[in-house]
Write a structure and sequence with these properties.
Length: 356
């Protein structure tokens, strides 16, 4: 029986998702375990985690060797535990005899470098690595409004909007239930704040794009792409994430709501609707192949696409560890497929490894 292992930084992370997969695994002759990478005993290379019991319909404590196929769902922070787990996962990914559903992507700056030299370059907002507070201040003079994003960020965390006005600077960031804003009366105060911020992590800078609807709500299109059981990329589905009025991001963690993509697209005049659909189709068909030509094999991608008021199309983010809440909300009929697709592809990986 094939063993599929879910790797997370905390054992209860994504509990519902993993339990739904594990509950369907028996019909594919798969056993599911979950564990933290740092639980490995370096002398025996055994892991301490939990095994899903179909008899008891729950997770049970268990020690086990490295599973046949690994599903990496680790979301790293800046803490010691994250660094420790990241090192172990990197070591596992370097071993020829270890199989992963997908190997993930590098940080957003490396991703931008590759895509900016591809046929998708026209869909990318201009992006630069932030090297100093003075650089940010200089680009503010050029663009007036900019966005700062962590190079290794996710879920819209740590994103800052900065606007230069005649006599002061406005800085905004979205928290869980509210937007926090500050006003800096002069350039020196802004530079001091930037100095402290840039010491914490690496940031990238983009000109601000007004990606809002007529109600001034930020929104984007989240698409989920996966490999099917034959290893072919398919677009599983698309949904609209609609943020709160005047917010910076449309992430669900910042209080956004979900709208069905077809409902949204039908509200757009036919000529523009066809243009948007064709542009998105081109991006989604091109992107996974471009990424696998330059990086390691992947299993799934979450692709966030923005539509400006002039109907220009922008690739906002590409994530190799996407969530499923947008599709589960907008297209609940996809539920079984979403929970079974990792099982189908895990079997495909094992079948291919036997033939090698």
């Amino acid at each position: 029986m094939l063993t599929l292992g879910f790797m997370t930084l905390q054992l209860k992370n994504e509990h519902t998702y993993f339990t739904e997969i594990a509950g369907r695994a028996l019909k594919y002759d798969i056993e599911c375990v979950r564990f933290i990478p740092a639980s490995m005993d370096p002398t025996t290379e055994m892991f301490e985690g939990e095994l899903y019991s179909h008899q008891q319909n729950r997770w049970l404590k268990k020690k086990f060797p490295l599973p046949d196929v690994l599903y990496d769902r680790c979301f790293y922070g800046e803490d010691f535990h994250s660094r420790q787990c990241k090192g172990i996962v990197s070591w596992l990914k370097s071993k020829d005899n270890v199989r992963f559903l997908g190997y993930g992507l590098p940080n957003k700056l490396e991703l931008y470098e590759v895509l900016s030299n591809s046929k998708l370059s026209a869909y990318l907002p201009k992006t630069v690595k932030v090297t100093s507070p003075l650089m940010v201040q200089s680009l503010l003079q050029t663009f007036q409004r900019i966005i700062l994003k962590p190079s290794n960020g996710s879920q819209g965390n740590g994103v800052y909007y900065i606007e230069m006005q005649k006599r002061h600077y406005i800085v905004k960031t979205d928290k869980l239930e509210q937007q926090v804003s500050r006003v800096f009366a002069d350039e020196a105060l802004l530079l001091n704040w930037l100095e402290r911020l840039l010491k914490k992590k690496e940031f990238m800078l983009q000109p601000y794009l007004s990606l809002t609807n007529e109600q001034h709500e930020p929104f984007d299109i989240r698409s989920l792409l996966q490999k099917d059981r034959n290893g072919n990329w398919i677009t599983v589905g698309k949904g609209i994430r609609q943020g709160k009025v005047e917010r910076i991001v449309s992430n669900l963690s910042a209080g956004a709501t979900v709208i069905d993509y077809e409902t949204w697209i039908q509200s757009i005049p036919e000529q523009k609707r066809n243009f948007i659909n064709e542009e998105i189709k081109f991006i989604l068909e091109s992107l996974p192949h471009l990424l696998e030509e330059n990086f390691h094999p992947l299993f799934e991608l979450g692709v966030d696409i923005g539509v400006a008021k002039d109907h220009s199309i922008w690739i906002l983010d590409v994530n190799s560890k996407p969530g499923r809440k947008v599709l589960l909300t907008s297209q609940p009929g996809l539920q079984d497929y979403l929970y079974e697709s990792p099982l189908l592809y895990a079997n495909t990986i094992m079948e291919r490894s036997i033939l090698e």
